[in-house]
Write a structure and sequence with these properties.
Layout lengths: L1 E4 L7 H9 L4 E4 L1 H7 L4 H8 L10 E3 L3 H4 L9 H5 L2 H5 L1 H12 L3 H32 L8 H8 L6 H21 L16 H18 L8 H17 L5 E2 L3 H18 L1
Parallel strand pairs: 1-2, 1-4, 2-3
Helix pairs in contact: 3-7, 7-8, 8-12, 10-11, 11-12, 11-13, 12-13
C-alpha cells in the first residue's frame, strides 16, 4: 500500500501502525506536508513532524514539488514514477540525520530550515489571498445541478451519470483556463492524457470542494483561513488519487477523495 500522508497524521499512531504493518507499505510525503510542518518554531515543528517517518526511512516516498508536478504530462506510462523525487526519497535517512543536527543547534542547518519556513509561509499567505477570490465563485458551480442533485451531493450519495457528466464539463472548463494561465502548465496535453494531469485532478477536487460548500450554504461568509485550509486539503486529496489512498482524520478530505475516485473511474474508466 502506498498512502499519501495528510499533515494531521504525521504524529498520529495510525501512521506508525501503517508502517509497522508491512515493510512493503509506503508513506508518501508532499510539499504541502512540509509547508505546514514548518509553521511556528521551524526546527522544533519539523523535528516533531518527522518523528515517526524518521524511524522508517526506507518506507518513505517524497514527491516532487507541486509546481514541478504541474508541468508533467498525463501520459499513463510511468505516471506514479514521474511524481517521485528520487533524490529526496533515496536521501531521506540523511535528511533525518540533518534534522537532528539542526535540533542540536548547528546554525547552517537551522538557517536552511528557517529559509524553507519563510518560503512556506509566503506560499500559504498567497493561498490566503486566493481564498478571498475563490469564495464568491464557489456558488456558481452548483448552478448546473437541480434541487434533487444538490441533495445527493449534501447526503454524499452516489452521483448519477448525468451529474458526473455535468461535473466533468465544469472541471474541463476550469482546468483549461488554468492550463492557459499557469506558468508551469505542460505545453501540450492530449484529451486522453488530460485526466491524469495534476491540474485536471486538482481542478476536480476543487470543484468537489465547491459543491460541498454550496450544499451546506455556500462559502461567501466563510473565513479565509478555513477556505485556504480546504484548498490545501484538496492538494493532499489530488495526490492520493494517484496512489492507494489518503491517511487522514479529516472527514471532509476523505469524502473528497472517495468522490474524486468515483468520478475519475466512472468518467474515464
Amino acid at each position: 500500500m502506498q498512502m499519501v500522508v495528510d499533515s494531521n497524521q504525521l504524529q498520529n499512531p495510525q501512521l506508525r501502525a501503517f508502517l509497522e504493518a508491512s515493510t512493503a507499505n509506503r508513506a508518501i510525503l508532499t510539499d504541502y506536508a512540509a509547508m505546514e510542518a514548518l509553521q511556528g518554531n521551524a526546527v522544533k515543528s519539523m523535528v516533531n513532524a518527522m518523528s515517526i517517518v524518521g524511524d522508517y526511512p526506507d518506507q518513505i516516498i517524497v514527491l516532487k514539488t507541486t509546481q514541478s508536478i504541474c508541468q508533467l504530462s498525463g501520459e499513463a506510462d510511468g505516471l506514479q514514477r514521474r511524481l517521485i523525487d528520487t533524490s529526496q526519497t533515496s536521501g531521506f535517512a540523511e535528511y533525518i540525520r540533518k534534522l537532528k543536527v539542526a535540533e542540536s543547534g548547528y546554525q547552517p542547518m537551522v538557517d536552511e530550515l528557517l529559509k524553507m519556513a519563510r518560503d512556506a509561509t509566503e506560499q500559504l499567505n498567497r493561498m490566503l489571498l486566493d481564498a478571498a477570490e475563490v469564495a464568491p465563485i464557489f456558488g456558481d458551480l452548483s448552478a448546473g445541478f437541480n434541487k434533487e442533485e444538490r441533495r445527493i451531493i449534501r447526503d454524499n450519495a452516489p452521483l448519477t451519470m448525468t451529474m458526473v457528466d455535468t461535473l466533468i464539463k465544469s472541471v474541463i472548463d476550469v482546468s483549461c483556463e488554468i492550463f492557459r494561465t499557469h506558468p508551469n502548465a505542460p505545453h501540450k496535453v492530449t484529451y486522453e492524457q488530460l485526466p491524469n494531469t495534476f491540474i485536471f485532478r486538482n481542478s476536480l477536487c476543487c470543484c468537489l470542494l465547491a459543491l460541498e460548500w454550496t450544499a451546506i450554504g455556500g462559502a461567501k461568509d466563510a473565513q479565509r483561513h478555513k477556505i485556504r485550509n480546504d484548498m490545501i486539503d484538496s492538494h493532499f486529496v489530488t495526490y492520493a488519487t494517484y496512489f492507494d489512498g489518503l491517511l487522514s482524520d479529516d472527514a471532509k478530505a476523505l469524502r473528497m477523495y472517495s468522490r474524486a475516485k468515483e468520478v475519475l473511474e466512472r468518467a474515464f474508466g
